[in-house]
Design a protein that fits this description.
The complex is a heterodimer of chains A (301) and B (430).
Chain A: H1 8-41, E1 44-45, E2 53-54, H2 58-63, H3 67-99, H4 105-117, H5 120-130, H6 137-144, H7 161-187, H8 191-199, H9 204-215, H10 217-232, H11 236-242, H12 256-266, H13 270-300
Antiparallel strand pairs in A: 1-2
Helix pairs in contact in A: 1-13, 3-7, 3-10, 4-7, 5-11, 7-11, 8-9, 10-13, 12-13
Chain B: H1 2-21, E1 34-40, H2 47-59, E2 63-69, H3 75-82, E3 92-95, H4 98-106, H5 114-119, E4 135-136, E5 139-140, E6 143-155, H6 156-162, H7 173-183, E7 193-196, H8 225-236, H9 243-249, H10 253-258, E8 262-268, H11 270-281, H12 286-289, E9 292-295, E10 307-317, H13 324-335, H14 337-345, H15 355-362, H16 371-375, E11 381-384, H17 392-408, H18 413-429
Parallel strand pairs in B: 1-2, 1-3, 7-8, 10-11
Antiparallel strand pairs in B: 3-10, 4-5, 6-8, 6-9, 6-10
Helix pairs in contact in B: 14-15, 17-18
The chains are: A mainly alpha (301), B alpha/beta (430).
Amino acid sequence: MKKPLLSKNAKRTLVAYSFIAPNFIGFCVFTLVPIVFAFALAFLRWDGSNPIEFAGFSNFAKLANDTFFKAALRNTIIYCLGTVPLTMVASLALAVLLNQKVFGRGVFRTLSFFPYVASLVAVTSVWKMLFHPTKGPINTILHNTFNVAAEDLPKWFTGSLVLLSMILFSVWKYMGYYMVIYLAGLQGIPSELYEAAALDGAGTWNKFRYVTWPQLGATTFFVVVMLTINCFKIYDIAIMLAGGGSGELTESSTVLVFYIYQKAFINWDLGYSSAVAMVLFILVLGVTIIQFYGQSKKDKA
Amino acid sequence: MKKRIIAVLMCALMVVSLAAGCGKKGGAGSNGNVTLKWAIWDESSTQYWGDIKKAYEAAHKGVTIEMVDLGSTDYMTVLATELSGSGSEFDVVTIKDVPGYATLVQKNAIVALDDYIKKDKVDLKKFAGATDQVVVNGKLYELPFRNDFWVIFYNKDIFDRAGVAYPTNDMTWDQYDALARKVTDTTFGKQVYGTHYHTWRSTVQLCAMLDGKHTILDGNYDFVKPIYKMVLNQEKDGVCRKYADLKTEGLHYSAAFSGGDVAMMNQGSWFISTLITNIKKGDYDAKLCGNWGLCKYPHAEGVEAGSTLGTITGLSITSASKNKDAAWDFVNWVSGAEGAAVMASSGNFPACMTADVKKAITSMEGFPQDQQSKDALDVSNLYLEVPYGDHVSEINSVLDSYHGSIMTGELSIDEGVKKMNDEVAKILGK
């Protein structure tokens, strides 16, 4: 009897691999290889055409003296520190509220999800109209009702206020999405727990404190990690709210992802840009590891 | 285990070879026919690309020009990406701005044209000095075919209504400022703005470069302070719209001028054909802006009138091109007298300006017929908005950013200019 070319087992594996292959090859070519290459680039000097030179740590040394990098880093961190807790609290509060049996909660749920569905470009235009420095309704109210002098009216998209505008916008736009995730988490809490807590004499606050919050641990972890990663990736909101004009983003509104783009594709300093990207990577990784560690400790307890 | 690896490799090989199958083909044709691939932007809304292609192909049998539209928004970025590494298929590329040109030169993506220029005895004098400002280490990598320069557009009706004499071809910046204030009306509901500055840095900061002593590559920007002071004071007094408002609204300069409440606006000569076409089509209300005129840029005290800023649009040959000689013939033709005639026929300013070309433009239907507007097109000194320099792209980014900071009031003029000085010094010092 002739021995088959492949054993039965090998054949099965081969079929399995061939099914994964199209996706995996795409992933390798378009994601994995570029990521590994970006790590290497951070230690090189390259403009995309001329021969690559080895740069050692000089790209990283330059970061310390780069005004725009420092501004971008500072702005991104402030934005995250503002956005992550605010969005979390707002979406959790919304979820708890809309988990009650209130009249028309379906409508309210849909309404709070609406900003997330609406196109970013469209809603930023509306925000820019509302917050227009001289003609917007918000500044008009400040001027007419609260008697703020015309010179003192806040310019919402410049200077120190621009980050605040970005944070508020982001909370408003994304809280609906995280509310849905929290709602799913809330549905998963068995009602027996609340009944038991009620028997023990727990009020609304204690029920939340000792039943809802601990039970939502895994959901909160997911929400915080996703929020943090998304916040560090901020680019579109900054460009849409603070961009335009000749400078695109000034020192007060520039963010890391924009700076990475600018250094890589406007100034063609790919090595340096990768070094900035590394900083972003380490930041996100660090925050995630800390949260992961905290979560697993809590799980054990 | 080995077999598995082999199997995976086979699969990978199959996919790769499939992908390669749809890779490049073509190039130079066999029977002497040449196809030149040319990078451009906005084919549908810009008439002259097609005109040039048609005219060149009619004059050169056997040559086909294939246009590839890369879009105007980030044309130079997309082009630089296309020409990175090897394997570009472009023969001729259009150069939109000098920072992008600098990038391509540094990337060795385009070739120096000096040997061709010498061989065909091209006289660079016809470009009125523009080419001198884009020379890199003694070599020239592009020939301009389009040259736009800055003028003042003004609305005659507003001046007539206010009973104020029109701006002239010989004004200092102080006279210009005084004139703008004279026609300004800040009454709510019927505002008239004496002047208007679009949100580009060029509309404000670069006006300070017209004394012929300074360029944006200097590294010390103290000389721009007076012009910022003038514009910010005008903003404060309601003479022009506020930068922060314009940025938030995204108001386009053409909408501002055609709205009929702007008396004077500094803008590039490209706006001439836009105005003429849109007034003719009825897209702009002729009652609001139909009666317009042109005058030369104001000048610094003690400098002769007629100096202005300009930008050139040029053509370069890629290093990867297999048809460099044919490409050179195209570049030389388009930037020369024949190309100039094609450009002028649609109201655009060719880089090689002759008396005929000027006459063709000023006699277009819709061009203001007073002598002063015609004379406004005579440029004595053309300073490129951005001349070539080693770190021009980085310097541009820094200046743009602090221009925004000064204009929105984030930084005072002194603080902003100090930042420009400090940050550019860092770039130049490395």
